[in-house]
Amino acid sequence: MNAASPHRVGVTVLVAAAAALLIAALIAGSGFLERVVVRLPDVPGAEGVAIAVSAVAVLAAVIWMLVRLGELARARARRRALEATVRGEVGCGIRSRLLVSSLTELTADDPRSTKLAARYSLVVDELGVSFWNGGRRPRRAVYFPWREVRGIRSDTIVAGASVVPVLVLRVRHGGTSVELPIILAAERPGRFALADAPFFAVVRSWKAKHRAALAAEGLEVPPLTAPIPIIRQGAAGAAVAAR
């Protein structure tokens, strides 16, 4: 299975579940709706208005679904193209307002760098970290060599009603130092952001590449921070059961 397939499957499952819930709610509440409609006063043209509103709602839902599926298809094609041409790790990031705001501050001389896709690609190799848009022909939006990276750590931010983990990349570029909060996309169906063991594995990998690249160039290697926890499924389950 292609590594990007779970994203498409997850969105499809969520859309199907939402549609099923909506249909079930309409069926369950059909009797109540009929009683309410009967009590409403007659309004000339009300039936036509209701049909028009329903048609617009259905059309909007279909357009939204097609747009989302198109975005996922482009992300999948972009990942395949990158995996065939680059030597580093290829990942997927989820655009956030905090990230766009930080990139705007960091790359004020090139506003195109902030125009990331909803799900953009990340390439991490021995040279640095790059952000990519596009589809079958990926376009690099912004690139930071390892010498410009001052630190890598894990943190959390609030996204909607959830708290999600983020990989914070502190970059000094053009005399400006900014922290970039990167939400890594989960590869499991029905999940939004990467978390737990897979998330910390990515953080450890980025840290290792950063230190190795600086050492290879004879630059100062950042001091070791507290070890990143290695979470295993069995240990996590035991911890939850103990609570």
Fraction in helix: 40-55%
Strand arrangement within the widest β-sheet reads 4-3-2-1-7-6-5
List the helices and strands in order: HHHEHEEEEEEHH
The CA-CA distance between the termini, in Å, is 36 Å
- Give the count of structural domains: 1
CATH class: Mainly Beta
Question: What is the CATH homology-level superfamily?
Answer: Pleckstrin-homology domain (PH domain)/Phosphotyrosine-binding domain (PTB)
Question: What does the largest sheet look like?
Answer: 7 strands, antiparallel
Compute the gyration radius: what is it?
23 Å
Assembly classification: single chain
What structural category arises from helix and sheet content?
alpha+beta
Question: Looking at CATH, which topology would you report?
Answer: PH-domain like
CATH architecture: Roll
Residue stretches low in confidence (pLDDT < 50, at least 5 long) are: 1-9
Label the overall shape.
elongated
Strand residue percentage: 15-25%
> Would you count the extended β strands for me?
7
| Helical segment count | 6
Structure description:
The protein has one domain (1-243): Pleckstrin-homology domain (PH domain)/Phosphotyrosine-binding domain (PTB) (PH-domain like), CATH 2.30.29.30. It has 6 helices and 7 strands, in the order αααβαββββββαα. The chain has helices at 5-28, 30-39, 46-85, 97-106, 196-216, 233-242; strands spanning 89-94, 119-124, 128-133, 139-145, 149-159, 162-173, 176-184. A 7-stranded antiparallel sheet has the order 4-3-2-1-7-6-5, sandwiched between helices. Helix 1 runs antiparallel to helix 3 (46-85). It is elongated. The model is unreliable at 1-9 (pLDDT under 50).
